[in-house]
Amino acid sequence: MKKIQLLLTFCGFSILAWGQQHFTVQAGMFLNAKTEDFDGVRDLGFVYAEVSNDNVYRVFVGGYEKQVDADKVTATLRQRGYGNAQTMEIRLSEGRNLSVIQLATRDAGKAIEWAELGKAGDLYGIAADDDVKITTAPYADINAAKRDLSRIQQLGFKDAFVKNVNSAVLFVITPFETGIKKGLFPLVLDKQPPKRTAQQQQQQPSQRVTPVDVPRTYEEAGLTVKSPYQQQAQQAKPAIVQKKSQPAIRANLKRRSALELQKILKAEGVYTGSVDGLYGAGTAKAYEAVKLSNRELRKYLLLAQHGEAGVNDRLQQAIDNLVTDPSAVLVLESSSTSIAKAYRAYMLFTQLGADNEVNRLMNAALKETYGNRPFKTQPPFDYRATYAYQDLDQLILHLYYVHSSPGMTYSAPCWMSERHPRESGKAATAAAAFPAGEFQLKACDPLSQWEEIQTMLVIATDMQSGNKAEAVKAAAAATQRSRLLTTPYSPTKEEQRQAESWNQQVWDGLNIWSAKDPMHQQMVTAFKVMYFQSQVRLEDYFIDRGFEAEEAKTLAIQMLQALVGVQLARFA
Asked: What Rg value do the Cα atoms of the chain yield, rounded?
């Protein structure tokens, strides 16, 4: 039975009733999003985000008590180009009662004095229609909040007051919301401890002045942070980012990919259930069984555990692993290529700062890459000049220009955008805009962590033997993977047709090839298992991101093409 809606009022402290409804609008998911990217929608409500470990930003707009109001914002967002915007219910029943101090209420569409508000410490927010209520971090209990109120008011927040809130509507204010880097909020340190009365000194003679009993974060209060933003209950969508970003497989969704997997599992003698396209417990058990019973598959599963499939170039591996593998620097030192010099310059700069050797290496990389070459379109910088590198902005920009030179086969690594999101974001945009260039970004996605995809890539690479793909095509496919990973757009009918056509052509070619030789047949059988298992998992990945089942099917095939299309080109 639905809970009776209550308005709880106690000593002036209010709390959102558990029976009420609350909604927000998800604008989409974006890689390395920045606050200024959403300036065009701030008139619709406060813009805030949840960030995964993979730098994927799940961006929301506003908070609404009525679904009809949220639906209007969703429609407007879609009109403005956010094609995957959707209304989402915040489940208040999953929240808990927390005590905070509200500092201010601000218009979401106007500039907010974040630096001034930051004097109070860590900030939290509650989106409400066109406004945002700004609060302190939660306290252990309401008494702790009351004890800290006078300190907060002395910082200049005269109208601050204690209130109880539902944790489901509370979110952390981060550099995404403020546009201010962490650590740039001013620190407010009292030159002298506040005066205490004789009575206070007598009652607490041994206590420090700092209120150590006032927790400033969830963790200090012994609370667990749980994302309140779940999809609609009827959609039953699990959390987007799990360990290794591997989504759970839906058992109640009938699909062709699961049916094809069941066919091959039944042919292998490990599946005895109905071939019905429902990936239930029987299918999951049979998939685990075939990994043990099929010797060809066991071989590839072992091979998949030894490094990333498809990366055969030692220098590319060194670039990819530069910040985690100490031996990668030795590979750079042993190479005379321009890209190796550029990364040596980067490593020196990050360790020593501005330095003549940094200047020598990067200028040499630019001149060797661009010098004495005819260009129909001139590069967007003067490669004949000699540069002095004083900051990472220019250094990373020029490193990416080396990556974007015509004929370049090496991809920019994922870790660069993770370490330097602002600098690498600007540099990647500038490098990709060079029409004569070949800028490629490594596939910065969690998919390579999935066992089924790792193994599928190893098998595909083996089937490619003797027909090695051009590195440029492989890098372009990696870029397509990165695009698909965070695309907010539904596939068009033409994209759906192309994906289905590619999928059919590949399997027609593979089936003909496997019929010619028993060894080919064993390889294709192992590949089928991992291909269709990957397709099922990818469909759930895209459904988790808010796409419909049919859209997810197309996106999964597009991702499979980006993963193994280059290796399987001779079969299509």
From this structure: 28
